[in-house]
Amino acid sequence: MKYLCLAYEQEETLNALTPSEWESLRAETLSYVETLRESGRLVATEALQSARSASKLQVRNGKLSVTDGPFAETKEQLGGFFLIEAKDFNEAIQVASKWPSARLGTIEVRPIEPALRPERRYG
């Protein structure tokens, strides 16, 4: 089964790292990505730019509304994602817990819905 792991980070925390601390975290992350890739668990992974570079849009009554970011009144922002294969939710949690930035932020793990349900979006 596929699980989407969303990595939430505090931009200030990561920016406060010394160059050597950042390089260490970066190297550890790239090494873990390679470990996941070699194990066949990694489907995809990408880092995101700062929420300050994002825009939020809504369409209501046919009218488009666009707002520049950041949006949430929270210290953490979505910093990236990794999509993994795991036999069950517990294994997905174990895989996600080893993501290096989990020590500095939060990893949200969600099962992937195989298809949109015909009866309603959320069961």
Features:
123 residues, alpha+beta, Alpha-Beta Plaits, four-stranded antiparallel sheet, two-stranded antiparallel sheet, 28% helix
Characterization of the model:
The chain has 123 residues and is an alpha+beta fold. The chain has a single domain (2-111), classed as Alpha-Beta Plaits (2-Layer Sandwich), CATH 3.30.70. It contains three helices and six strands, in the order E-H-H-E-E-E-E-H-E. It has helices spanning 11-15, 19-39, 89-97; strands at 2-10, 42-47, 55-60, 63-68, 76-85, 106-111. A four-stranded antiparallel beta sheet has the order 2-5-1-6. A two-stranded antiparallel sheet has the order 3-4. A hairpin with a 2-residue loop joins strand 3 and strand 4 (63-68). The protein is flat.
Report a brief summary of the structure:
The protein is α+β, with helices and mostly antiparallel strands and 123 residues long. The protein has one domain: Alpha-Beta Plaits, CATH 3.30.70.1060.
Total of helices:
3
Domain count, please report it: 1
Shape: flat
Q: Give the CATH class.
A: Alpha Beta
**Structural class by helix and strand composition:** alpha+beta
Q: Please name the CATH topology.
A: Alpha-Beta Plaits
Taking all residues together, what is the mean pLDDT? 93
